Amino acid sequence: MSGLLALIGKDLRIELRTKETLASLLLLGILTLLVLSFAFEPGSEARGDAAPGVLWVAVTFAAVLGLNRSFAAEREND
Amino acid sequence: MPGSAIDARGLARRFAEVNALAGVDLGVTCGEAVAVLGANGAGKTTLLRLLATLLRPTKGSLTLFEQPLKDGGAGARRRIGFLSHASFLYPDLTPVENLKFYARAFGVADADDRVDEVLDEVGLLGWRNRPVRTLSRGLEQRCALARVLLHRPDLLLLDEPFNGLDADSAAMLTAVLRREHARGATILMATHDLQRALESCERGLILSRGRIHWDGRLAGIDELQQVYSASARAS
Fold first, then answer.
1. Any bridge partners for residue B217, and if so which?
2. Which pTM was predicted?
3. Looking at the complex, does the CB of residue B86 fall below 8 Å from at least one CB of chain A?
4. ipTM at complex level
5. Measured between alpha carbons, how far is residue B74 from residues B7, B54, B231 in Å?
6. Per residue in B125-182, pLDDT tens?
């Protein structure tokens, strides 16, 4: 558990210092929400129903991107 | 009688069509200091990466500290310090932050004191709070050495440790290796520098085309130069 906390702490420290991944994640999240919102008629009932799903899609994409960035930092040393 | 630190039988590693290591039998007892010599592409780095459990052998078996590596080496890794071509340091963190991370990962009990101790040992206290990316190659190498020493490993695997070091830093590294040897650590050091090998190790082995071409006591530079040249001609 201590090792896991050390790993999380290290990744957060690096991210807070560089803010490289954070900017990419925000941009990806906003773009995903924007693109998916075009698929629905403005003001339609379906748009409201789909909103939670669209949000989770954006979160999942962003999480995968963040995970890849985190692994890439370790691979550089391999 | 000292126990066995390394027992490798028929250790082989293949990368696509290339046999990087073609069946190495190697026994090293605890407390020995061994220089691994050989030309570029002889298999030195592959051997060290296999011993560090960062690579799996294509063939053969490896036993570290009389424990076969059944769990992929997770248990043995705590007893190994590996200095590689890559520093294994995070460039956006300072030496102190890097070392504190590794200290927690290795479960070092007196982490803060130990970090200061190893930074002092490698002469890096003055650079302790500068991001690693701003350090020179030599200073980064010193920091990587501090990482290797941090958890007081029983087995030091050093791949070209003198690379990038100036004369003072090289002398510091030689002194560190002697202290670690006196402490009882087992050392395997890959190097091209025969003089450095003689200064730091009592035994040498010469790799050629992925096999051990010569294995013996290191006596003098002339004798070592002769066997090294003979090995280079044979390959």
1. B203
2. 0.86
3. yes
4. 0.72
5. 17, 10, 35
6. 999 999 999 999 999 999 999 999 999 999 999 999 998 888 999 999 999 999 999 9
